[in-house]
Design a protein that fits this description.
single chain, two-stranded antiparallel ribbon, 197 residues, globular, mainly alpha
Length: 197
């Protein structure tokens, strides 16, 4: 799939998928809530909103780049097909992450279910050090946003502070998280390469 969707493409895709006016906004928010509930019912409480965002983003990219045309009545059905794929990808990712651990002695990835308590603490320390390092590279504004966003009670105030809707705020946070995850992955790979040399 191509890169991110710009504002005019987004508006066009939104109109094709949900129609126009207040009913379209209502339909979108209803679908959004249904997707979040779907992922929560699957057991993913903490990332349900991000997974729902991934579904909608894929649907919009399909509409923008692949010319997806659906009757409005079929949008919900189609989105849950995508949600099923997103859920399976997420589960595979979690499964691999739970099994892969980096050996602190050799730096090579190794697959174990549970390591000794001391090793686990060292790995956690390494991961937290990398997280702190990557967070420090974010702008102060992005860092404040990502740290404040997960306090659900502050989201309306944050949206007002940034002069954006909650949806736009959620998209910004999602993009910051993607950048952060990419940096963390890059740093972990550097640790492995450094241990190899």
């Amino acid at each position: 799939m191509k890169g991110s969707v710009n504002r005019s493409e987004y508006s066009s895709a939104f109109a094709r998928l949900f129609g126009e006016g207040e009913q379209a906004d209502t339909a979108y928010m209803s679908l959004w809530r249904d997707l979040v509930k779907y992922f929560q019912m699957k057991g993913e409480i903490t990332e349900a909103e991000d997974l729902a965002h991934s579904v909608i983003e894929r649907m919009f990219k399909k509409a923008c780049y692949d010319g997806l045309e659906l009757p409005i009545s079929q949008v919900s059905f189609y989105s849950f097909g995508i949600a099923k794929n997103v859920w399976q990808e997420h589960r595979r990712k979690l499964h691999l992450l739970s099994k892969q651990q980096v050996s602190l002695e050799t730096g090579h990835p190794r697959f174990v279910l549970v390591g000794p308590e001391q090793e686990r603490d060292e790995r956690e320390d390494l991961l937290f050090d990398i997280l702190d390092e990557c967070m420090a590279k974010l702008s102060d504004r992005d860092k404040d946003l990502i740290l404040s966003y997960y306090d659900r009670e502050k989201r309306n105030a944050l949206a007002a502070d940034y002069s954006v809707s909650r949806e736009t705020l959620r998209v910004r946070v999602h993009r910051i998280r993607q950048q952060l995850e990419a940096r963390i992955t890059e740093r972990l790979n550097e640790e492995v390469r450094r241990a190899d040399s």
